[in-house]
């Protein structure tokens, strides 16, 4: 099914016939071997994007919108095939993969609509012989780098505002999960996007690709989703050219259950916020703070529901949690569990890898967690939920904020005064209140502190791909 992919690449590698494999993390099956592109290939792709830039920007907003609408419909028409590719290369359950494809289509629909709403403004002039106004124009060629954990929705979330704004793009998907991006680009060609508007780069290593995107003066903006460490590197590489950047980086999301919370609702929300995509999400609940008065009830009910989560191949029926992406991710969660147990943590359920093939790990709940443990300070990125007991509502907010990250936070409470005070006090770009899921194409997605710069989604996401130009017209 995946051995001979017609959508492999728009470019022929210029640095030899190197190729790299893509594997199914559930089975170890070889899915495909793709061209392993380097800096020279990236430079060619940038030239193509630059050559197409003026023509694409010169189309009317309606023409760009129509192309996005066609792509949106093709994604929906081929959603089952796209979901199957996603599950095969990433491992997530097929139901989650289908949901992600639908979410990707939602971004295309949203920005197909927003393309027609790029407005300027007029400014009252200080004299009658002049007029002052502001127009918005596309920034130019965009370099985009997407992660492996949501390989379809991240492509759509980055590319759709880029195209709506009138920019062209060079995209590098994660080396672990490039196939669904390739399939989406094949559908984009069917949607009628002109040559050079969308350019896809496959590479097993991101260093050379990132350096070329950051150093090439034809690229005017970098959009990256990934680790804070890599984000810092890309920012340094862009600094010589003062290149515009949008970064969605690491997280360490707190999930707080106050004493006035609906415990059953909080348990369900925590399951959703923690175990979606096997915990491999930048907005995954990483630290669960539960008030002492409801701690035992919450922990018992939560552990009971976690035990019922079925782990397995994403194509199997009733599977809730698929594999971790690779052996390194598996080693990290094992190290975090071992550290917690050594320092006094209690495993309420899970705690072990499953089988010797694949990268499966039991969904795990640990109580009696203290601040000295790695799971209280580091992002696990896996199906591990540490529960931390607290008594002081003010202190728990301080603890939640005590991190360099500020992407997402969650809390459950009923008192309206507390809801407002906590929501405003949490130092995060997104806060879920009495819900474990908040992502939407209509809402701004992004963080503060070292979790990123800029926003994706919503009307605000379009602004990052536009330059504001002030026009002053005299002699009137």
TrEMBL record:
Report keywords, A-Z: Oxidoreductase
According to its UniProt record, which residues of this chain constitute the active site?
248
Q: Indicate whether rRNA-binding appears among the record's keywords.
A: no
Q: Indicate the segments forming the Aldehyde dehydrogenase domain, all copies.
A: 15-470
Q: Which family does it belong to?
A: Belongs to the aldehyde dehydrogenase family.
Write down what this protein is called. Answer: NAD-dependent succinate-semialdehyde dehydrogenase
Source organism per UniProt: Rhizobium aouanii
């Amino acid at each position: 099914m995946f051995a001979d992919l017609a959508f492999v690449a728009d470019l022929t590698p210029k640095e030899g016939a190197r190729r790299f494999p893509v594997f199914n993390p559930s089975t170890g099956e070889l899915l495909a071997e793709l061209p392993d592109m380097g800096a020279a290939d990236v430079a060619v792709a940038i030239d193509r994007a630059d050559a197409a830039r003026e023509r694409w920007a010169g189309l009317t907003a309606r023409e760009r919108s129509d192309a996005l609408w066609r792509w949106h419909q093709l994604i929906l028409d081929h959603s089952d095939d796209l979901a199957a590719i996603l599950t095969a290369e990433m491992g997530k359950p097929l139901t989650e993969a289908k949901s992600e494809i639908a979410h990707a289509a939602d971004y295309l629909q949203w920005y197909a609509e927003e393309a027609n709403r790029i407005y300027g403004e007029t400014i009252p002039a200080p004299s009658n012989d002049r007029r002052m106004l502001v127009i918005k124009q596309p920034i130019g060629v965009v370099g985009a780098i997407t992660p492996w954990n949501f390989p379809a929705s991240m492509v759509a979330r980055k590319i759709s505002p880029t195209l709506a704004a009138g920019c062209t793009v060079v995209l590098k998907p994660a080396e672990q999960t490039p196939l669904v991006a390739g399939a989406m680009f094949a559908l984009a060609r069917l949607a009628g996007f002109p040559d050079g508007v969308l350019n896809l780069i496959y590479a097993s290593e991101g260093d050379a690709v990132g350096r070329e995107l950051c150093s090439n003066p034809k690229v005017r903006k970098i959009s990256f989703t990934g680790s804070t460490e890599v984000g810092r590197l890309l920012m340094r590489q862009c600094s010589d050219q003062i290149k515009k950047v949008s970064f969605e980086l690491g997280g360490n999301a707190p999930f707080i259950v106050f004493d006035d919370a609906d415990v059953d609702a909080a348990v369900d929300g925590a399951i959703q916020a923690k175990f979606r995509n096997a915990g491999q999400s930048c907005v995954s609940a990483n630290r669960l703070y539960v008030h002492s008065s409801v701690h035992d009830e919450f922990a018992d009910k939560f552990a009971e529901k976690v035990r019922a989560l079925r782990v397995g191949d994403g194509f199997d029926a009733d599977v809730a949690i698929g594999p971790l992406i690779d052996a390194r991710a598996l080693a990290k969660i094992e190290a975090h569990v071992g550290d917690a147990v050594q320092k006094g943590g209690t495993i309420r359920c899970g705690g072990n890898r499953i089988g010797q093939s694949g990268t499966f790990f039991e969904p795990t709940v640990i109580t009696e967690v203290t601040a000295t443990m790695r799971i209280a300070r580091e992002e696990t990125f896996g199906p591990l939920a540490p529960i931390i007991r607290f008594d002081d509502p003010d202190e728990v907010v301080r603890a939640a904020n005590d991190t360099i990250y500020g992407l997402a936070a969650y809390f459950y409470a009923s008192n309206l005064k507390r809801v407002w005070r906590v929501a405003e006090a949490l130092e995060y770009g997104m806060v879920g209140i009495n819900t474990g899921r908040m992502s939407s194409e209509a809402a701004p997605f992004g963080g503060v502190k070292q979790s990123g710069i800029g926003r994706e989604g919503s009307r605000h996401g379009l602004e990052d791909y536009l330059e504001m130009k002030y026009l002053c017209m005299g002699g009137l």
